[in-house]
Amino acid sequence: MAYSEARSLTPTCISKRVDAKWVPPHVRLRRVEAGGSGGCVVDTLTPTERSAQMARVRDRDTAPELRVRRLAHHLGYRYRKHRSDLPGRPDMAFIRCHKAVFVHGCFWHRHDCAAGRRLPKSRLDFWLPKLEGNRARDVSNLARLRADGWDVLVIWECETGNADVLAERLRTFLNA
Which one of 3, 7, 18, 76 has the fewest CB atoms closer than 10 angstroms to its CB? Predict the structure, then answer.
């Protein structure tokens, strides 16, 4: 099968030759519309495996969030987790001093670092609006919290590596 014929395939499991390479039956070809290349992107996982992998992506108790929570507790600060009565459900809410801390993953919240600038290789028409929607929702939630009189600190995943710098940043924010 020629490459031009493979580009027109629907995203179903196939077992054909593409560009003189054998494609196993569990590999699916997807057409890329928004990427500009117009070629096919190979998904090496079956739909069931992809679903299981995406189900493991958590929205709370992530590794960076646990690092920040352990550090705050070690510094002697007490907080409430994921207060649903506050806009955006902050990861940590310090009720007495009206301060909230969000720990954002760089990819999911579009930080301006290497991980945040990375885009998925397939289905850009789905992922770009979703990731930009996350960013817009974050801005809205921060504005609503500030309007309600809360001070807000956003800690990015890439900033959680150095515990000393993070501890000083938390101390400065919470003692101000």
Answer: 76
pLDDT, tens digit (0-9, with 9 covering 90-100), for 26-48: 555 554 444 445 555 667 888 88
Most confident range, picked from 44-48, 52-56, 126-130:
126-130
Instruction: Please state the φ and ψ torsions of residue 101, each to the nearest 5 degrees.
Output: -125, 130
Q: Which CATH number characterizes residue 125's domain? A: 3.40.960.10
Residue 31 structural domain: 3-55
Residues 106 and 26 in one domain: no
Indicate the number of domains in the chain: 2
Q: CA-based diameter of the chain, in Å?
A: 67
Residues sharing a CB contact under 8 Å with residue 10, sequence separation 6 or more, in sequence order: none
